[in-house]
């Protein structure tokens, strides 16, 4: 049986608890195994971002716990948590993913540099990843010189650079046209298969949902459905 | 990270230029103010030594206390010959001094009467250079007197006017003598100009009834100031019953003036550094706030807070690193240029010259001080970067990313 990689228990988040409480996430249980390719869907304001942020340790839950690969990250002190993120989680956001002053190559290499991986190995992995996302000809371009789709591909390469067990992506395709969206999804699906990296991504986009093998639907901060499907 | 910080500062060129130029100006202004006050200080000391006090003066110890002409040094001639023979000494002169009254037809005023040897004082204090109207004293014109411009105005007299000096002689009898104004002088020290008058030593001696071997003051000018202590000791041995003092002991108020100028210098430097602080806090804060999302992303992907902090500090450090050498260079050029041509402060010198300042200032600065200033600006800018950097630390990554 596959190993549990994400385990969220009784996870709740209430904003503005003392003024106008907003229950963004309520009592969510999620259990994801290694190598899954999961879409998190739901209407706007249903709590997708909040949930992803808590799972990724960017946000503290009001109650409940998150266990990633047997580490209860909700109990880690801040600096340990940042370190844990560095080594175990890759993030792809909707935008502002890249460091504007660094080239594509340097952006992908950045997390490796933070991990103190020697230069030669770093170089090899970066080139390999950028090749996999089809950007071998844009190595030395800065983010400003890349299209939105290309930027998101660099972001995916960056997220995967440290060989994380989990990649969390919050609406990675929201700013992309349909062609770039399909392209990015194919790349993510391929890396998911090849590297056995677990992907959890939120989306509104029906075409993106179709590519997932499991779809968790969130409504008003609660899990409404959780179904396995065959990707199209 | 060093690379990111370095490239970050070139992202917003105009803002970086603002920071760099404020550092340049800070360093430059610091250098200028320090060198200017150093120039002022040197000028003041030189003015005091070469135009007024000389390096060393010898008096009868009682003369210092009671200011009475009867307390003299003797035998003056022997002492003078021995001092003149010493090759560490540039020039020596001796004077007879009495306190008294000067009266013109209209009014009277208290004065300090110096009986001098006109030729000796040319070398000693350049007195002849100060004569603005009329002529300098010369041997033979027995009743000639040299008075200050300010005193002349007060007494409403001109060269050739008649005045009467009244004072007590060594037998404590009141004597007076009629003099004719030979010349009017103006020194750099206006307050002394109102008090000091000069007559021939021979004449004053006669009126005071002093012996030819007696004098009240011996002034010594050195060739090299580093010999000060040695010559002081030598003079003390030569005149065992005299009191030997150097210019610092003779003019304690000089030290006070210098100290108050130092205070102004510190205050001005403080203001400059404060301005620098606000400039840097402001711009660095702007640059942090502008990059909230980016910083949030950096934290999310694993850049810990210490590194974020270091990054912001590094950015400021790099800006300072670019700015300081420019400021140093500019400051050095300014000091070199004005150090040669001098700065004319005669606009303000009416007030200053009453303290004994001359109106040309030659700024100068030790190499060491250049680096102290640059170092202070560096410290200031790093200190002022702390607040923006801390602000960056307080960001919560999830909120930072959410903000548009
Ligand atoms: N920092 C915050 N303070 C207060 N309320 C917040 C905050 N962040 C989110 N919320 C609220 O929490 C709820 C869930 O927000 P969240 O961003 O997780 O939704 P979402 O599913 O990601 O929406 P979208 O699809 O528009 O991105 C919303 O009602 C939102 O208004
Ligand atoms: Mg969202």
UniProtKB/TrEMBL annotation, chain A:
Transmembrane parts of this sequence: none
Keywords: ATP-binding, Nucleotide-binding, Transport
GO cellular component: membrane protein complex; plasma membrane
Gene3D superfamilies: P-loop containing nucleotide triphosphate hydrolases
Residue ranges of domain ABC transporter in the record: 6-230
GO MF entry, a single one: ATP hydrolysis activity
Family: Belongs to the ABC transporter superfamily. Macrolide exporter (TC 3.A.1.122) family.
Protein name per Swiss-Prot or TrEMBL: ABC transporter ATP-binding protein
Automatic annotation (TrEMBL), chain B:
Residue stretches spanning the membrane: 17-41, 263-288, 308-333, 370-390
Bilayer topology term: Multi-pass membrane protein
Top-rank taxon, per record: Bacteria
Main localization category: membrane
One Pfam family matching this protein: MacB_PCD
A cellular-component GO term for this protein: plasma membrane protein complex
Record carries keyword Ubl conjugation: no
Entry's localization field: Cell membrane
Domain MacB-like periplasmic core: 16-233
Keywords associated with the record: Cell membrane, Lipoprotein, Membrane, Transmembrane, Transmembrane helix
GO biological process: lipoprotein localization to outer membrane
Domain ABC3 transporter permease C-terminal: 267-397
Family, similarity comment: Belongs to the ABC-4 integral membrane protein family. LolC/E subfamily.
Protein known as: ABC-type lipoprotein release transport system permease subunit
Organism: Maribacter polysiphoniae
UniProt lineage: Bacteria, Pseudomonadati, Bacteroidota, Flavobacteriia, Flavobacteriales
């Amino acid at each position: 049986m596959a190993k549990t990689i994400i385990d969220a228990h009784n996870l709740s988040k209430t904003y503005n608890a003392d003024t106008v409480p907003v229950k963004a996430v309520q009592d969510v249980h999620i259990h994801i195994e290694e190598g899954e390719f999961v879409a998190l869907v739901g209407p706007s304001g249903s709590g997708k971002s909040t949930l992803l942020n808590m799972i990724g340790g960017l946000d503290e839950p009001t109650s409940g716990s998150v266990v990633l690969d047997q580490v209860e990250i909700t109990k880690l002190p801040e600096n340990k948590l940042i370190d844990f993120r560095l080594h175990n989680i890759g993030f792809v956001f909707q935008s502002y993913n890249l460091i504007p002053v660094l080239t594509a190559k340097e952006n992908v290499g950045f997390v490796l540099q933070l991990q103190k991986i020697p230069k030669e190995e770093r170089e090899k992995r970066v080139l390999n990843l950028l090749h996999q996302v089809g950007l071998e000809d844009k190595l030395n371009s800065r983010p400003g010189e890349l299209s939105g789709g290309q930027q998101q591909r660099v972001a995916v390469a960056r997220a995967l650079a440290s060989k994380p067990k989990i990649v969390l992506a919050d609406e990675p395709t929201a700013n992309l046209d349909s062609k770039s969206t399909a392209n990015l999804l194919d790349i993510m699906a391929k890396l998911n298969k090849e590297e056995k990296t677990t992907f959890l991504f939120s989306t509104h986009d029906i075409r993106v949902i179709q590519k997932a093998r499991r779809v968790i639907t969130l409504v008003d901060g609660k899990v409404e459905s959780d179904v396995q499907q065959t990707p199209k | 990270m060093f690379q990111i910080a370095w490239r970050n500062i070139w992202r917003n060129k105009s803002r970086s230029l603002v920071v760099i130029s404020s550092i340049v100006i800070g360093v430059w202004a610091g250098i200028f103010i320090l060198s200017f006050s150093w120039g002022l200080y040197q000028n003041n000391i030189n003015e005091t030594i070469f135009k007024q006090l000389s390096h060393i003066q010898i008096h009868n110890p009682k003369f210092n206390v009671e200011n009475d002409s009867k307390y003299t040094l003797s035998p003056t001639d022997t002492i003078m010959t021995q001092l003149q023979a010493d090759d560490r000494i540039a020039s020596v002169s001796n004077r007879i001094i009495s306190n008294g009254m000067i009266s013109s037809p209209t009014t009277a005023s208290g004065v300090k009467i110096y009986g001098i040897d006109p030729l000796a004082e040319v070398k000693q204090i350049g007195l002849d250079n100060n004569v603005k109207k009329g002529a300098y004293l010369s041997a033979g014109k027995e009743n000639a007197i040299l008075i200050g411009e300010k005193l002349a105005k007060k007494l409403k007299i001109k060269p050739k006017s008649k005045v009467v000096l009244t004072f007590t002689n060594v037998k404590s009898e009141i004597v007076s003598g009629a003099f004719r104004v030979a010349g009017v002088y103006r020194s750099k020290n206006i307050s002394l100009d109102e008090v000091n008058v000069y007559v021939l030593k021979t004449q004053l001696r006669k009126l005071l009834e002093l012996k030819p071997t007696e004098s009240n003051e011996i002034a010594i000018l050195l060739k090299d100031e580093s010999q000060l202590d040695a010559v002081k000791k030598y003079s003390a041995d030569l005149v065992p019953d005299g009191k030997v003092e150097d210019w610092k002991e003779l003019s304690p108020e000089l030290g006070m003036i210098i100290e108050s100028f130092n205070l102004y210098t510190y205050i001005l430097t403080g203001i400059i550094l404060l301005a620098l602080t606000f400039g840097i806090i402001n711009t660095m804060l702007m640059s942090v706030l502008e990059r909230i999302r980016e910083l949030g992303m950096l934290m999310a992907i694993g850049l810990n807070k210490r590194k974020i902090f270091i990054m912001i500090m590094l950015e400021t450090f790099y800006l300072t690193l670019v700015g300081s050498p420019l400021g140093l260079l500019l400051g050095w050029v300014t000091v070199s240029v004005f150090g040669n041509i001098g700065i004319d402060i005669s606009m303000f010198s009416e007030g200053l010259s009453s303290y004994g300042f001359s109106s040309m200032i030659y700024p100068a600065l030790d190499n060491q001080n250049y680096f102290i200033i640059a170092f202070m600006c560096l410290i200031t800018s790093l200190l002022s970067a702390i607040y923006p950097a801390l602000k960056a630390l307080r960001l919560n990554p999830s909120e930072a990313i959410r903000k548009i």
